[in-house]
Amino acid sequence: MSDSLWVYVGIAVAVLVVVGGVVLGLLRGRGGADERELGAPQVPGAPGPSDADLAPDGAIGTIEHPGEVVEDEPEVLPAPAPTPTVETPEAPAGRLRRLRARLARSNTALGKGLLALLSRGSLDDAAWEEVEDTLLGADLGVQASTELVERLRTRVAVEGTTDEAAVRTMLREELLALVDPSMDRSLADERVGDRPACILVVGVNGTGKTTTVGKLARVLVAEDKDVVLGAADTFRAAAADQLETWGGRVGVPTVRSDRDGADPASVAFDAVKAAAELEADVVLVDTAGRLQNKAGLMDELGKVKRVIEKQSPVDEVLLVLDATTGQNGMRQAEVFSEVVGITGIVLTKLDGTAKGGIVVAVQRALGVPVKLVGLGEGPDDLAPFDPEAFVDAVLD
């Protein structure tokens, strides 16, 4: 055989070997795929699928890489918004019973002092002068104190008794006459025709006026009134926030400006308008505390009332007075009455003081009744004023 023939034979053999190897490789690959598709068992000793390769609890996963299963991410729902808690205020009747004990404690010195003096075996001029001094010390006022002493002297002389029970009866009757239970102490808190009642609340700085408005809202809500608050105190930065917090606790809306220093008359007007649109029973308008000797501030208060009256009559103007100011509060009351026409008094901080005579003094000075009294720091420590309960507490 020639050399060239051997060359051709060698080339043919090499080609056959290469082709055979390729064919064998393809057949082995197809067979492995078939085994995997048919779930053929793994070769003994070969590692099986790991736990990470399997979707838990039969969940269907997405295969991103060989041997890795990525679960579908669960849908995350937003947490439900918390439901605001709306408080149920204490009924006014319950407050009177609870607060009477506090008032009795604060006026113990006045009641006991008077009874001790009047129950003496002998009442001379010096004793009666002591009685009068005790009444003056309780802020009853000079005229009222003199009048009460004269009435008591006459009755003691006529009835000729110093028995403590009899003296107590006489003192109760005369004090009650001074407090005057015949005054109309009801609040203008009922709708008038097709409009809500409008109550304007005024007072000097530091009397607790905004807090009183918030507490009054609770009184009215406890009586099933629909109330709207107007935050017309735009000079004190926190006043509107404070009032809104009070209203929110009992589900009452507050109309306020979104900027400090806004025109208070405009805010008051908007509050009355909103109350009419909401068909509320009553709108309470809080105003900025002001000093009674500042003419500009008092004129502005008059403007607030006039602007409200362009839309609705003002049915009630409540003056908030601090009971501890005593006779100093009389001048305050008189100036406010001249500017906006006071219809009722709210006495705050009557607890902790034996100066309950301020009730008589302020009523006499203005000719308007004390309608509400504050006897504590609690949210329901504002109650309608009851003359008989007040006098009984003084003498308790």
From TrEMBL:
It is an enzyme of class 3 (hydrolase). The chain crosses the membrane at residues 6-27. Pfam families: SRP54 (PF00448), SRP54_N (PF02881). Residues 369-382 form the SRP54-type proteins GTP-binding domain. Residues 33-61 are annotated as: Disordered. GTP binds at residues 203-210, 286-290, 348-351. The keyword Membrane applies. SUPFAM superfamilies: Domain of the SRP/SRP receptor G-proteins, P-loop containing nucleoside triphosphate hydrolases. InterPro entries: AAA+_ATPase (IPR003593), P-loop_NTPase (IPR027417), Signal_recog_particl_SRP54_hlx (IPR013822), SR_rcpt_FtsY (IPR004390), SRP/SRP_N (IPR036225), SRP54_GTPase_dom (IPR000897), SRP54_N_sf (IPR042101). It is found in: Cell membrane; Cytoplasm. PROSITE patterns: SRP54 (PS00300). Keywords: Cell membrane, Cytoplasm, GTP-binding, Hydrolase, Membrane, Nucleotide-binding, Receptor, Transmembrane, Transmembrane helix. Its EC number is 3.6.5.4. It catalyses: GTP + H2O = GDP + phosphate + H(+). Involved in targeting and insertion of nascent membrane proteins into the cytoplasmic membrane. Acts as a receptor for the complex formed by the signal recognition particle (SRP) and the ribosome-nascent chain (RNC). Part of the signal recognition particle protein translocation system, which is composed of SRP and FtsY. Belongs to the GTP-binding SRP family. FtsY subfamily. This is Signal recognition particle receptor FtsY. The gene is ftsY.
